[in-house]
Structure formats: C-alpha cells, structure tokens
Target: Terminase small subunit
Amino acid sequence: MPKTPPAKNYLTKMEIRYLHRFAELMDERKALREVFGPYTPRKRHDEIMAKPLAQKKLKEIVDNGIADMENAAYSAMKKLVNIQNTNIADILDLQTGQIREDIDPAYADAIKSIKYDPETGAVVQVTLADKLKAVETTLKFAGKLNKKVDMNVNVSITDQLRNAEIPDEEVDGFIKQMLGAPDDAIEAEVEEGGDESK
Model:
C-alpha cells in the first residue's frame, strides 16, 4: 500500500495574499474572511502557518513593513527639520530677487508657493511653509506635546496641571518662569496658602 506523500511546502498566490492581509490586520478571522470568503474555517489559518515557508514569508512581510514605516518616519522628520531650518535667503538671491541657482534640494520642502510676474518673469512672492506648525508636529511626533489643557471647563489651570501626568518639578519651574518671581517668594506663598485639597 503506497504511503501518502507529505504536503508540498509551497504557497499559492491566495495564501501569500492572506499572509499580507494577516500581517496588516493581525486578526486571522478577518483576514480569512477577506481573502478566502466568509465561511472559511479557522483551521485554514493553521494549515497555512504549518508550512515553514509561510512562517518565513510572514516574517519577511512584517520586517519589510517595519522598514517601510521607519523610512517613512525618517523622511517625515527630515522634511520637518528642513522646513524649520530654511530661511528666505536660502531660496532667493536677495540682491537680484531671483531664485538661487545653487539652491539645495532640501530647501524645496520649505517652499509652499512661488508667484511670478507674468510680464517680466521676476519672483513677486515666495511663501514658506509654517515653521511653527513644523516645530509643533515634530514635538508631537516625539511625544512631547501629547498633553492638552482644557480651557473650556470651570477648573483652574493649577488643578488641571496637578491632575496631569507631569512631574511637580516641571510644573513649579514652568509657573516660576511665567511669573518671573524669585524661587523663595513662590515657595513662601505656597507654604502660606496650604493644600486646598484637604
């Protein structure tokens, strides 16, 4: 009696498509439904993943996805830094009023628009991207501006800061800096006021 040959270790186009979808969703039920149809049993996932080639392919898909995200993040950060560091003198020759011939390609990220005089072809207006917005986006990207203070509630900013996840030293330093008062004066005032939460 002939023995049944083991299943071949190859992947069909549908299985490769499934691995891509599974890597994106990280939900086998949704990925199976999208690729193979709504009535596909979950054991289909196990059958595919039992193939060593499938595991290798999934790892390759995930690694490529991570590399793509890192590259996109690096490109976005580089563009934001270019916007922050570009000045009008980097783009325009201030003596002639024309776009520089030796302009660095990185400065193109900072140019929002350029208007020319239709008759003479001279540059009339150069609008640069918003530097403040670029700085804000960079700080958000770095996780430094994720806390917001709600100004539309009947709670003092001091209470909001107290309830926020910010170290006391940072809050004290910020208040001292804003008031411009000497350190000992503020500490004395806080001691006299006492703790309002009691």
